[in-house]
Amino acid sequence: MQDSTRLALSGERLTATYHLRASAAEAEAEARARAICVEQTVEFPPELIAEVAIHDQVIGEVRALRALAPGRFELVVAYPVEAAGAELTQLINLLFGNISIQPGVRLVDLELPPGLAAGYRGPRFGREGLRACCGDPARPLLCTALKPMGRSPAELAELAYRLARGGIDLIKDDHGLTDQSFCRFEPRVRLCAEAVARANRECGGHTRYLPNVTAPAGELRARARLARAAGAGGLLVCPGLVGFDAMRALADDDALGLPILAHPAFQGAHCASPDGGLAHAVLYGLFNRLAGADATIFPSWGGRFAYTAEECRALVAGASRPFAGLRPILPVPAGGMRLDRVGELLEFYGRDAILLIGGDLHRGDLSANCARFVAAATA
Amino acid sequence: MQDSTRLALSGERLTATYHLRASAAEAEAEARARAICVEQTVEFPPELIAEVAIHDQVIGEVRALRALAPGRFELVVAYPVEAAGAELTQLINLLFGNISIQPGVRLVDLELPPGLAAGYRGPRFGREGLRACCGDPARPLLCTALKPMGRSPAELAELAYRLARGGIDLIKDDHGLTDQSFCRFEPRVRLCAEAVARANRECGGHTRYLPNVTAPAGELRARARLARAAGAGGLLVCPGLVGFDAMRALADDDALGLPILAHPAFQGAHCASPDGGLAHAVLYGLFNRLAGADATIFPSWGGRFAYTAEECRALVAGASRPFAGLRPILPVPAGGMRLDRVGELLEFYGRDAILLIGGDLHRGDLSANCARFVAAATA
């Protein structure tokens, strides 16, 4: 049997980049950096570890540490790929499990070497695939949500029909619609999928209906399969509620083969502090790509949430930059977007985005507003 | 078929208490309060909802709003139980899904009415049950972790044997041990469970071994069952990595019937800001109880993390106060606790706690340190 004095790991390393808050003293930053390397791997006083192999091969290694500003440092840690195993849950734990609880450390970037990256299929469709699903129009894709909560399946289906006739590419359930007594999952999904299919037949459209399959652990897969069988064209998933790996399992399920929109419910705290948690690019971009989302919904600047334009720009970079050989995904600016802002959204996000407008489509005539939405996005 | 003009919900409501940051103007706080009621339910401009029934029965209702301090308010919102469905994922979404992304709103408490609470079994063992599992000693329970990462299953099993002989009640895997190539889950769990059983036979002890079953969505249940079959006496789960509901599913699995320790990896951001996210009592106490944990590990004041004594006290209240008819659970202060602090931990947390000491047990003679740990906790 192996023993830990003779570990023989591959030497392959993944790297995590953190921003650290520390007093301006270089020594304090160095001590914090080394403490992070220990905390995220052996979580054990290093002076009590006799095995040289564990020091050399298991404990994270400080690759770089440099001052960004007084009291702020950038730290790059290299971790052995074997510590991450072949599991997204453990990869996230390795990158930011315990240190999520420590103040003043933020995960701002990561890189996976090919051997580790090969374990993640990532987005099945990605940016180009999802655009192709929608007929690859020469404009951003357009999305809206079925709501409000309280409407019946038949009423939501009628709404879905009108939105599909209006030329919306992606019609998702509101993420608050699950399987409530007043709007059961099965009839909602069946009726809405039928309504969208009817609209597509009538006008030759490519509209896809994406039900919300966020559900208890034991029911997620069944709901997704039921959605597929009912004719859904994609899935809405809240990884903050079900866990990133549960979303990955849906993305990797060949029997489903449906594009996935990730919704950020219950994930807000991760990005709330500028010097703790996760950078927007990591949470919305890199983690969602590892977990197989094809598009990432986020509250855009200028809506009823609070992200800045700079944060949104960084997020888009996380969704689209080369990363672990995974497909880029589409950013979905949302959260109180309005028809009269489509022009500036288009200018900011460009064609490779999904513009999501909810309530504002319902001010006045829905069909006319859909036509305005399409026209503004095509401009 | 039902229609939304004739919703007939039960009128039963759950309540959520939030702390809000707002300008001192009462009107701004009232507007924020109403916006939260809308955001968390219909997520739709209320003036565009024609159905009186949705206004009356679906949209959250402000039950109370009062100033706590200049610019800080306490808000109580009542939500219809039907909006939460019968799903922990949706209950959490209803309480704090979208507003997790808004700055300046913190979920500090919740109450479920009996009809909704009846849908949650909660902790299978709870405080008294878990104590009984360990022979109900007249002292806090004692816990430690198998580490460091890099040791082989046989080495960890040898360590588990010595710790069990030393009288530690609960021996858990380090939460970074999953199913890595250098320490596979199956042999680790088998050998460690055997080692603890052998120690128990030799000295008549009640020590339990709790492997870390945090795993990809499709493997969690299988690992837990494998652990049970191998003789594990409980499970360690990181709900921040697998989702709260996945932990609940393990707790509710009658074929397992094992106590669960919840570990806070990747949950730190939820409590990081004093005026956003979740109160410690909610995250570590109420949510873990809804999700079936029997004990809640957290970084205690005075360790290498940053919670204050006041936060720890509030957390213990959330773990133990009457809530939804669910069993109280044991707080597990951890995160760099030391033998020389057992006295003050005992004084602070009392007998109804699990004291977790990791690395410090290994400074010098392990057996002597275990004896010191038992003696100090018994004092």
From TrEMBL, chains A, B:
Domain of life: Bacteria
CDD domains: RLP_RrRLP (cd08210)
One Gene Ontology term from the biological process aspect of the record: carbon fixation
Residue intervals of the Ribulose bisphosphate carboxylase large subunit C-terminal domain: 137-362
Position of the signal peptide: none
One GO MF term: magnesium ion binding
SUPFAM superfamilies, per the entry: RuBisCo, C-terminal domain, RuBisCO, large subunit, small (N-terminal) domain
UniProt-recorded name of the protein: Ribulose-bisphosphate carboxylase
Source organism (scientific name): Marichromatium purpuratum 984
